[in-house]
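Worked example 2:
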Amino acid sequence: MAERFRLVIDANQFVLVLVGAVERGEMAIVRHVSEDRNSELAACVKAWRHRLVLDDRQALRKRARRRPNITQEEIAEMVGVSVVWYSNLERGVRANYSDGFLDAVAEALRLGRQERELLYLLAVGRLPPAVPIGTTTVVVDHALRQFVKGQRWATYVLDRYARVVLHNEACETYYPWLRNDRSYLRWLLTDADARRRLVNWATDWAAPLLTQMRIARARHPTDAGIAALVDACLEADPEVSCLWEAQAARESLLRSRRGIRLCSNQRTTLIDVVTLADPGVSELQIVSLLPVAEAAPASSALHGR
């Protein structure tokens, strides 16, 4: 069984302590991260992958082909990169890895805060950017990833922070900002582009999202990350603040019809927004945007429903 590591930072010395040895009351095995960080990076990333627990279905498949651990290919698919790029990391190759890539690896490998710091130190020689207090990450499992990627229509997954943790390529037709940012909350509430493109922005789009954030804040009262995100949006835009103070709540229905203007031609398209919950992770919402076939002109259709 792979050991868990604890990172101790003291006087610029990076020390790895095998937690299992301490818990067993044995002499702790301590290793200083030497100049040979490549081998340290390879050893850590491989150990983190090997300690992942397979679900029952995966375990049966692995046992059938005599491969007990989650493979590099599966981690690469979860992260959304090529096997070659991920395997470079696991072989200890130091490169100009992006923060997004390293954070995705940290999520896939279920790394804690200190392990994430160690990953950054070994891979790029610096600490990771600060994560807002209370912010948690969600690991998207293989089945959900396959489901989303296989959808014909634009489909994405939101976490408790209204952050897009997974989306398919079709999503970028409606939400091109996903190429650079994952915060649905920030885009919808503070970006002028959202007001230009979302028909009935306040009632059909902003109000349901604010209701969703009220529920998230009530459900997770100790999560400072949710409160910080909401406060930042309220401070950034007076109209959003007014909607919040007026408690302009509108229920997020399982299916709701809305209008959106596409960036490509500014034509208004009617879509049915279908929202489902992932039973495996209660805080995840799966959202699909289904174009309404043979839609009537947007103004009459939207006001006539």
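Confidence is low (pLDDT under 50) at residues 1-35, 294-305. The first strand starts at residue 5 and ends at 10.
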